[in-house]
């Protein structure tokens, strides 16, 4: 599929190693602005490793992560994780990673900690609470008392409070009951409708490709397929390997 959308983020020849094991072996990705891009693949394919390198939490062995801002292009592999968040690329980690001994409201305030547009922060807090009403109801409660699914929501909400231009989501539906999985996918779409670009890593391949404009299939550290989400959904190789035939 050809697209006339402009890439906001381009990953070029990204390789990441753990010691002498190369987990990501020179991948190329392009995220079009305002789109959901899915990155799918089996356990151990290198999905999380790729995200961690994009967000600067792992240092790549080679390659570039080119982020297009209004007037310039920056290679994120040259920036610290903190600067990458500030520039607008924010990852929601796999698992929960909320601060369990702080309240929900405190977790959300921390998400906005580096922002300078404080007036806008209050507005974004209202938006985030409208996306996740359960967080608003329990705003003064400890994050540690939330259920797994609610903590996952808090992790996404906290990332949104950083006002990202690109959101990196690592398996947001992992470990959730089927109804909550539906809810998370609905919310991811709703977030995307505000214009936010999303890179969505998922093992729930069917659901991810349904909501993604574009998708990549990663196998043992290499991209083996890149196409529109709908083409991938009907691709015999994807059907066989990830969608149970
Ligand atoms: N900290 C680490 N040290 C050494 N090897 C690692 C480390 N983290 C991941 N690996 C290895 O790198 C490869 C890619 O792992 P990664 O976690 O990126 O895969 P993934 O696609 O996210 O898998 P999953 O679907 O299970 O989350 C795997 O072979 C994994 O065992
Ligand atoms: Mg992973």
| Morphology call | globular
Bound molecules: adenosine-5'-triphosphate, magnesium ion
Largest sheet: 6 strands, mixed
Gap between N and C termini, in Å? Answer: 23 Å
The CATH C-level class name: Alpha Beta
Percent of residues in beta strands: 25-35%
User: Nearest-angstrom radius of gyration?
Assistant: 17 Å
User: How many helical stretches?
Assistant: 10
Characteristics:
245 residues; alpha/beta; Rossmann fold; 37% helix; binds adenosine-5'-triphosphate; binds magnesium ion
Fold and architecture overview:
The protein is of the alpha/beta class and 245 residues long. The protein has a single domain, classed as Rossmann fold (3-Layer(aba) Sandwich). The chain is built from ten helices and ten strands. A six-stranded mixed sheet has the order 6-7-8-3-9-10, sandwiched between helices. β7 (166-170), α7 and β8 (197-202) form a beta-alpha-beta unit. The chain starts with 6 loop residues before the first strand and ends with a helix. The model has no long low-confidence stretch (mean pLDDT 93). Adenosine-5'-triphosphate (ATP) binds at residues 18, 21, 23, 41, 43-49, 203.
